[in-house]
Amino acid sequence: MKLCHFKHWFPLALTAIVCCSSLSTQSVAAESNESVESLRGPTAISEEAKAPALKKFPKERELLDLNYVGQPPLIPHSIRGYKITNNDNRCLHCHSWDNAVSAGATRIGISHFRDRNGQVLADVSPSRYFCTQCHVPQVNAKALVPNIFEPVESLKTP
Ligand code: HEC
Ligand code: HEC
Questions:
Q1: Whole-angstrom Cα distance, residue 105 to residue 98?
Q2: Average pLDDT over residues 46-60
Q3: For residue 21, what pLDDT band results from cuts at 50, 70 and 90?
Q4: Same-domain check for residues 27 and 65
Q5: Distance between Cα 94 and ligand 1 center (Å)
Q6: Is the residue at 28 inside a domain?
Q7: 50 domain residue, yes or no
Q8: Domain assignment present for 44
């Protein structure tokens, strides 16, 4: 906290004291938070956490049942090397309305053409452009936190 060196300046403007004391309270709070374990593990906030081991993503899988209405379906195939950049979205090579039939892939949902005000657009909405923000590939992974959520009966395959 470089700013707090102002503390030793004399004479002190009152505003500076107020500012510095609130800053130092914040830094005390941040230090004590370091003992709280979050999903990133016990690593101190000031240190870089070790990246978790890469999961083994299956190449090709059956579609998984949805767990709730409005869930983004999980990706049933590998997405290794599929880049999404400003100029090119690999996912749309197969999932756009133009290409889906020839690629044998599901078309992106109608909802993907609506902007945040509900206005229907002629192309994929920018808010839906980064597919992997919502869609993740299937993988056999341990739940990060305990979860006893059960899907409603109507979503289960008999
Ligand atoms: C080479 C073509 C191809 C590319 C590229 C591709 N997919 Fe797919 N995708 C498919 C096919 C084929 C299916 C399977 C459809 C099925 O089994 O019914 C599929 C299925 C899916 C599904 C499940 C759809 C459903 O019906 O529930 C999602 C979600 C999905 N892909 C997302 C993505 C995302 C996100 C990317 C980019 C990171 C991507 N795909 C890239 C071909 C592709
Ligand atoms: C903001 C979250 C979000 C983003 C970003 C997003 N999707 Fe989706 N997607 C969903 C949700 C939620 C659904 C299920 C409901 C629906 O169709 O809107 C879905 C459904 C789908 C489906 C299945 C449609 C169907 O008829 O069963 C496909 C395929 C798909 N998305 C592909 C994509 C691709 C490809 C991209 C990137 C271009 C993308 N999505 C970006 C949330 C998202």
A1: 11
A2: 86
A3: very low
A4: no
A5: 7
A6: yes
A7: no
A8: no
CA of 104 to the centre of ligand 2 (A): 16
Q: Could you tell me if the CB of 132 is within 6 A of ligand 1?
A: yes
Compute, in angstroms, the gap from residue 146 CA to the centroid of ligand 2: 26
Domain range for 14: 2-33
Whether pLDDT at 145 is above 90:
no
Residue to mutate (ligand 1; options 94, 131, 136; most atoms within 8 A of CB): 94
pLDDT of residue 17: 38
Residue burial 61-84, b: 16+ Cβ < 10 Å; e: rest: beeeeeeeeeeeebbeeebeebee
104: left (phi over 0), alpha (psi -120 to 50) or beta: left
Stretch among 26-30, 60-64, 83-87, 114-118 having the lowest mean pLDDT? 26-30
Residue 97 pLDDT > 80:
yes
Using CA positions, which residue lies closest to atom 42 of ligand 1? 105
Look up the pTM and report it. Answer: 0.80
Nearest CA to ligand 1 atom 6: 91
Q: Token pair of 28, please?
A: 């005390």
Our answer on whether the CB atom of 104 is closer than 6 Å to any ligand 1 atom is yes
At residue 55 the predicted structure's pLDDT band, cuts being 50, 70 and 90, is: confident
Q: Kindly give the number of the ligand 1 atom that is closest to the alpha carbon of 62.
A: 17
Domain CATH code at residue 82: 1.10.1130.10
Q: What are the residues facing 84 on neighbouring strands?
A: 89
